[in-house]
Amino acid sequence: MVRLITHNLLACHVKGCTSNNFPLEFKDVQVVLRESEFNPDFLRGFIPKIEWSALIGAARELGDTSLPDQLPEMLDDDFLKTLHHVLLEIHVEEGIMVCPNCKHNYPISNGIPNMLLAEHEIG
Amino acid sequence: MPPAVTPTRVASEPAAYEDAHVHQVYDHIAAHFSSTRYKPWPIIASFLATLRTGWVGFDAGTGNGKYLPLPLERPGELWTIGLDRSRNLLEIARTAGSTVREVVWGDVLGCPWRAEIFDYAISIATIHHLATPERRRLAVKRLLEAVSPEHGRILIYVWAVRQDEHSKRSIPTHDADDTGEAGQDVFVPWVLSDDKKQVFNRYYHMFADGELATLAAAAAEELDLVVGPPRGQSLKGVEIVQDGWERSNHYVELRRWQT
């Protein structure tokens, strides 16, 4: 699955592609929503790692505009539930992730992203 | 008695060799292999149980994803992404533990992540499938580079030449291995339990005593990390906090630090 939590961790790793290689841009996606158990303690622990603007951008590419532009100071349950949904319940099943820098395409098929590179592309 | 483990030598270009003798084999045997691999090993389970709620990590060579649901007593408190070369194993791993898991089709020698973004990484029974010392060292470097420089934790398991007394395997003695390198390159047969009883030979590098810790230290040094407990000022390092052997496997636990 590529959920936005994973998307927020992935970066292009083609040889020499070391700047502007994150976040990957979604293209031609098919999305499925699946409920998952809400765990506020997990979210509070994970929040410091999130690249917020990348998350907001990716969520909008997938048609979700429920998160604020800035990470709020108050992490109340309403906010955490919205964050939970965006990070963990939107599954990209099919599509492509494109590197904003080198334009390498990483296809997603049956929910599994293909991050393999040819031997000569490996850094 | 399973068919014998036989000595081998990496005869071709290592990436092509691994493709033929590791990746293609696992893609063929995925379903049967997975049905025999369901029980987490205790040291790995207890390592994962010590990690803090909210931490994210990855499992380099996740296979059927049996470590992705852990710790079972704190479901959902860690987020482990499974990485593997075998697409067929990933199809199994994506539903490990009866819920949907995150898996990525990739190579342990690649680094498809934001640098140093993870809190932990595990690599269980994977690095021994890489066909040269340089590639095994690079795999350890990739783990070190992917975790937090302040607190990143890593657990690595590989197969040992030294087998325990209950092992069903008969292991060849060092056979004309004149490379001067530690360990032993072997083929380990896998017999598919279908009508045809097809045999697939998987390539393994079996690790000698001390070889895994030496490999980890060499990988750390190539990244200009000090090897040892935290010390000094403005230094970055990695400590080998466990270096052990159990059930015919060597393991090391590493912890990154900076002062």
Q: How does this model look, in words?
A:
The complex is a heterodimer of chains A (123) and B (259). Chain A is of the alpha+beta class and 123 residues long. Chain A is built from 4 helices and 4 strands, in the order αβαααβββ. Chain A has a 4-stranded antiparallel beta sheet, with helices on one face. The longest helix of chain A has 12 residues. In chain B, strands 4-3-2-5-6-11-10-9 form an 8-stranded mixed beta sheet. In chain B, α4 crosses α5. Chain B is globular and about 60 Å long. The model of chain B has no long low-confidence stretch (mean pLDDT 90). Chains A and B meet through α2 and β4 of A and β3, α3 and β4 of B.
Q: How would the blueprint of this fold be written?
A:
The complex is a heterodimer of chains A (123) and B (259).
Chain A: H1 4-7, E1 25-33, H2 40-46, H3 52-61, H4 77-88, E2 90-98, E3 105-109, E4 112-113
Antiparallel strand pairs in A: 1-2, 2-3, 3-4
Chain B: E1 6-7, H1 14-35, H2 42-49, E2 55-60, E3 78-84, H3 87-93, E4 103-105, E5 120-124, H4 133-146, E6 153-159, E7 184-191, E8 199-206, H5 211-222, E9 226-227, E10 236-246, E11 249-258
Parallel strand pairs in B: 2-3, 2-5, 3-4, 5-6, 9-10
Antiparallel strand pairs in B: 1-7, 6-11, 7-8, 10-11
Helix pairs in contact in B: 1-3, 4-5
State the main characteristics:
heterodimer, A: 123 residues, alpha+beta, 4-stranded antiparallel β-sheet, globular, B: 259 residues, alpha/beta, Rossmann fold, 8-stranded mixed β-sheet, 24% helix, protein heterodimerization activity (chain A)
